[in-house]
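Sample intake sheet
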Amino acid sequence: MNPQSHLKMTALPLLFILSSAIAPAAVLSYESFSGYTDATQLDNQTAPTVAGYVGNWVHGNTSFGTQDILTSSTGLTYAGLTTTGGSAGVPTNTAGGEIVAGNSGRNARALDSSITVDATTTGTLYMSFLFQTGRETGAATYQMLELYNGINTIDTNGDATRAFQAGTSGNGNNYTFGVGNSASAVSLGAANTAVHQFLVRFNLSATAGADSATIWLDPTTETGGISTSGLNLAWNALSLADYDGNSAKWDEIRWGTTFADVVPEPSAALLGGLGFLGLLRRRRA
């Protein structure tokens, strides 16, 4: 198991071996969509090495949708955040009738042990990402970053293996998030076409029903947020899904163990390299 993440306490009694704890104070993963081929489907490329991910992106739909996510050499920009690389999204080519097979789909990539979660995982994980929606106006839309437990089961069983999603859903008028197969359980406010940063904090416990998630839209501090509790979270894959007029974009997907890891100050912004092995961060005063 990756020593940067779920640490097995092998020197302790057997009682404690069954629980894997997340290592403190670390940037675990940074996907800036650098090194991809411009205007090419994610699942048609050999994915660059990115800490936290394994294998290539795959077509995440076996039952519906033929429009895969494309990479772009142009990244999203967000005030106060130094960004690198490109972005991932889909072309804007539909003005109505959004959820049809020709303009719907998702791509997924497996995660490694540093950011996967199961019933024994304890500790705190943070994830942030940039998101932009074109706000198509169909009766039903769905543009989400998702976490799944089982990359080979995505969309084959009514999304029963989905653990979490955040983005826009419903009629596209609100930013929402949900756990499990509840896409729009909680509204984060009215949607628009600007670039926004989502932040999620997962508090994880080996006790059944004791996990929780707190989410922010455009956070500046780790206060407030909207929380949901009583969860049993488990995931091992990340997916980008667009069931809309093909207009969503994602960028700057970060995983860490502190707020500062995933919402870095401009002075502590990521300066280069792949994954946390290449990251340089200035000490906070």
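Comment: Confidence is low (pLDDT under 50) at residues 1-17, 267-285. The chain is about 5% helix and 40% strand.
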